[in-house]
Structure formats: structure tokens, C-alpha cells
Design goal:
161 residues, mainly alpha, elongated
């Protein structure tokens, strides 16, 4: 049984965990399903690519913070639940998907994102477009994975035990 300090720490942990999910998955949802289609329909490539490069430059630090908080709070909650052997299979599934999402984000951040920024700076818009297309596809994958994790996180205990 948790003491009052443990309950407080768990409530802070859960709150930070959920807020981090909202920032990361909600940001991907907005960028992928609202911002990108409008920008693609209204702006020519030089402006569109410059805008998206700057938007991602502002979004990715929030994703980094979210990733760090998700892993830290997730393992904190597992620790307080009694460790890996004490958690349900749904948490193991969430952890696996979270690892894949983190790897995809790291790849985006290290490979196509720097290429996008450099190509925009060099005004090489065809190559910048290729980088952005790669980022878009990978964010689409991560968005679906994130939505699946939300479904598992909210209903997994009841569905998967």
C-alpha cells in the first residue's frame, strides 16, 4: 500500500505521463491531419518547406521532453506497481510500441530532419521535399502507433488483463 508521499508521486507521474502523450500524439495528429494538408494546398514548395522546417524545429524539443517524461514516468509507475513481473501484458505491449515509436522519432530527428533543414537553408527544395515526405510518412506511422498505445493504455487492462 502506498503512503501519502507515494500517492502524491504516483499522481504527479500519471499526470506528466498523460500530458506527454497529449503533446506528442496530439501534436502529430494536428501536424499530420490538419496543418500539412492545408499548407500543401495553399503554399508553394519554397514557403511550404520553410514553414514545415520551422514548425518541426519548434515541435521536436517538445517531443524530446515528452519522450523523456514518458519513459521516466512509465518506469516509475512500473516500479511502484511492483516491477515488470507485476504489470499486465498490456503494459508490456505499450512498452514495446513505445520503444518502436522512440526509435522512429530518433531516426526522424537524426536523418531526414537535419537534411530538411539543410536543404531548405541551401534552397534545394526538391531534396527538402524528399526529406519532408520521409518525415511525413514516419510521423504517420508514429501517429497510428501512438493512437494504438492510447487505446491499449485506456482499455488494455480490461481487454488484455
Amino acid at each position: 500500500m502506498l503512503n501519502i508521499e507515494g500517492v502524491f508521486l504516483q499522481s504527479i507521474s500519471i499526470t506528466l505521463h498523460v500530458l506527454s502523450v497529449v503533446v506528442w500524439v496530439g501534436g502529430m495528429f494536428f501536424a499530420h491531419l490538419a496543418l500539412r494538408p492545408v499548407v500543401a494546398s495553399l503554399l508553394e514548395p519554397p514557403l511550404r518547406l520553410s514553414l514545415m522546417s520551422q514548425v518541426l524545429s519548434r515541435f521536436f524539443p517538445w517531443v524530446w521532453l515528452s519522450v523523456v517524461l514518458l519513459w521516466a514516468t512509465g518506469f516509475w509507475m512500473i516500479f511502484f506497481a511492483g516491477g515488470m513481473a507485476s504489470i499486465g501484458v498490456y503494459v508490456h505491449i505499450m512498452l514495446t510500441i513505445a520503444a518502436v515509436m522512440t526509435i522512429i522519432f530518433l531516426y526522424i530527428f537524426v536523418v531526414p530532419f537535419p537534411s530538411l533543414k539543410q536543404n531548405v537553408a541551401d534552397k534545394n527544395f526538391p531534396e527538402a521535399g524528399k526529406s519532408l515526405a520521409s518525415i511525413r510518412q514516419l510521423i504517420g506511422i508514429n501517429l497510428w502507433l501512438g493512437l494504438i498505445v492510447i487505446i491499449i493504455g485506456t482499455g488494455g487492462r480490461y481487454i488484455l488483463g
